[in-house]
Amino acid sequence: MTAAPRWTDRYERLRFTDDGDGVWIITLSNPGRMNATDATMHAELATVFADIARDDSVRCVLVTGDDGAFSAGGDLDWIGTQVGDHAQTMRVMREAGDIVRTMIDCDTPIVSAINGVAVGAGLAVALMADISVIDRDTRLTDGHIRLGVTAGDHAVAIWPLLCGMAKAKYYLMTADFLDGAEAERIGLVSRAVAADKVLPTALDIAHRLARGPRHATQFTKRALNHWLRQSLPAFEASLAYEMLDFLGADAAEGHAALVEKRRPDFGRMHNDG
Questions:
Q1: Which of 93, 142, 171, 226 would you call most buried, defined as having the most Cβ atoms within 10 angstroms of its Cβ?
Q2: In CATH, what class is 6-195+214-269?
């Protein structure tokens, strides 16, 4: 095992572990909050894949979560700072865009081990990975609609490619949960396995990729990701619509309902005229 690259020192919410063969495990870690994405983690996810892409010592990365969860979505305290705040919304928009774009542009293979609940910004990383392995019994949802904002983090870019437009519209417009087995059935993830097999399966795949022909693997990824690059205009639109929604009444009501653990009443908030 080798020491972590020097650039990893500036990360607080991401832990780095050398697993040999040039495979590095990145663990999302926000203790006591099911690895919810807060301001620090969001900013770090916006830069880490660019750092990885520049480091020739890294042949594959595996992203997973700490303490039996992948990521329980956006931290509600952090989300609350964005509702109605234009300057904060612009910062979040830049970071959210960078997460998706840097994952697409990172030629280094990315594997996700979705070891527990995955929602929101954490789900973006889980599904934008090149190969995804999930606990067949865990649950995931995009969740933006529950908050009263457009599904803008990643979903418009990749869900229609993964599971088709009909399923993408259903799950993104209803924010229904689905389990790992169903996610595999519709093509949203690569593999669904028993909980105790998630990390070993994902690591086996990561090491196979790391030991393979480096340039052939990277260029295959780069070529395939041109499909995603074609979706970037739609992604940028969805991200802009999401941020616009954060400045409106529905997001305020959605956030309040989540904090108060009640059903939101979006109907009385409408002032569309």
A1: 142
A2: alpha beta
